[in-house]
Amino acid sequence: MQPLRGTKDILPYEIIYWQDIYMKASAILSLHNYSEIRTPIIESTELFKRSIGEMTDIIHKEMYTFTDQSNRSITLRPEGTAGIARAFISNKLYQSNLQKFWYFGPMFRYERPQSGRQRQFHQLGIECIGSINPMADVEVIHLANKILNEFKLYDYILEINSIGNLEERQKYETDLIEYLSKYKKDLDQDSQKRLYSNPLRILDSKHIKTQEIVQYAPNLNKYLNKTSIEHFDLVCTYLNNLKINYKINYNLVRGLDYYNNTAFEIKTVCQNSQNTICGGGRYDTLIEQLGGPRTPAVGWAIGLERVLKIIDQRWQLAQKNTYIYIATQGLEAKKQVWSIVKNLENEKLRFELDLSNSNFQKQIQKASKIGAKFCMIIGEEEINNKKITIRILDEHKQYSVAYSQVKEEIHRLKNILSS
Ligand code: ATP
Ligand code: MG
Description:
This protein is 40% helix and 21% strand. By secondary structure, the chain is an alpha+beta fold. The protein folds into two domains: 12-165 and 225-312, Bira Bifunctional Protein, Domain 2 (BirA Bifunctional Protein, domain 2); 324-418, Rossmann fold (3-Layer(aba) Sandwich). The strands form three sheets. An eight-stranded mixed beta sheet has the order 1-5-6-11-10-9-7-8. A hairpin with a 4-residue loop joins strand 15 and strand 16. Helix 1 (12-31) runs antiparallel to helix 5 and helix 5 runs parallel beside helix 9 (226-241). The longest helix has 20 residues, at 12-31. The two termini are 46 Å apart. Adenosine-5'-triphosphate binds next to strand 6, strand 10, strand 11 and helix 11.
């Protein structure tokens, strides 16, 4: 049996990186008053259609959708923001004026699997809900920057744009379609299909010929009104004040419909087509569109597989050591051993209890193999003399400790091991 195409097992030697990412992100985000939120992996299909947009790639061809036993259409979440907006409304979280959330979890998209592109992948994301202030945009970007630096990632570029509001975009789209129609037959096939349904996406086509055509297309920033321009200018000013490097990319649009004004992506400098590690922006109308009160918001999501691909060679994480091994022989020893287990638990010493019926020699070999420092031995002789034997594995020495002294001895070992 093989895992499903585009899915991967995360094995114990890799999980330490995931745990480290989780802890590092959690530490930074809680300092900034962000709280973790966990929403369901399944939601109604309608939620995604109404938020991400019918004409986007995600809705059009990437969703894992099924009908459940009650004939409801259910979708495995392809991203985190829609579920959080839904949770914000269902739980009436709008009663407090600002909510800051972060999340970490699996997302599902039916895409062509390749390096950095899976069908089940993981995102770390944040949402700052309730502020229209450009300071909020900059605070979330600052946090992406801080978190990536904490992951020891520095060689990336932040690209930013303003995609204005719906009205501005509609005017722009009309003109863009008019311009692109003239070159329709020269556009790549995907772009031809998108010409009337989602023309903005043509702007970030990777096709050389399409890119050449797009170069002379009307520019969205010329269609922005005063409020949108002021917002964008302030975002840029604050980024300058924070000394965050960025590049304005007037062709940057996002693949989801709910964004307005600020849109940004963080790309690594490597020449790889899966080099976007973070995407985000403002979504001031999403919550209202889903039936909640009008609430502006801004956020981003980092693709963790793409981050891990770059950083796992740089991280030297210490594997946790198992310090103590417990070897027993005979039924009486196996009855006695549990009080030792409890003492080790109390001292919070990492141990492994041998669960085989092998002889002592084999058990002690196993202890050395996993790198334990001490092996506690209980056999017939120990039972008869009410003691246990402790073997110092590196030194091939051993000594005995009376039952009554075991607790103190374990405490002493703990001190040796932690010094
Ligand atoms: P792309 O253009 O690469 O498909 P996207 O615009 O669809 O990305 P977003 O929806 O903005 O991606 O998701 C945010 C981040 O999540 C991306 O920048 C990327 O790092 C990661 N991501 C998205 N789709 C996948 C996937 N199928 N496998 C792994 N990571 C992904
Ligand atoms: Mg995509």
